[in-house]
Design goal:
mainly alpha
Length: about 70
């Protein structure tokens, strides 16, 4: 959503444009991913909520970059 807002401010897309529903779906999907990772890790309710929020904030591009970075070190 932050990415979408920045793109709208820069004039590259309309805020209420056709991209908005897709950005919202990605944010919700990433929240589910964060919740799944937190559950798998055995985190409590508060850290699980934080993990879901962080995943939704970072989005799939950042998560993919972090994963690539982590697997190259191993």
């Amino acid at each position: 959503m932050i990415f979408h807002g920045r793109e709208a401010q820069a004039g590259r897309r309309h805020f209420w444009g056709k991209e908005l529903p897709f950005e919202m779906l990605v944010a919700v999907g990433m929240a589910f991913v964060g919740k799944a990772v937190a559950t798998y890790s055995g985190l409590g309710p508060e850290p699980a909520t934080a993990a879901a929020g962080i995943a939704a904030y970072l989005g799939p591009r950042a998560i993919d970059a972090l994963y690539d970075r982590a697997t190259k070190r191993a």
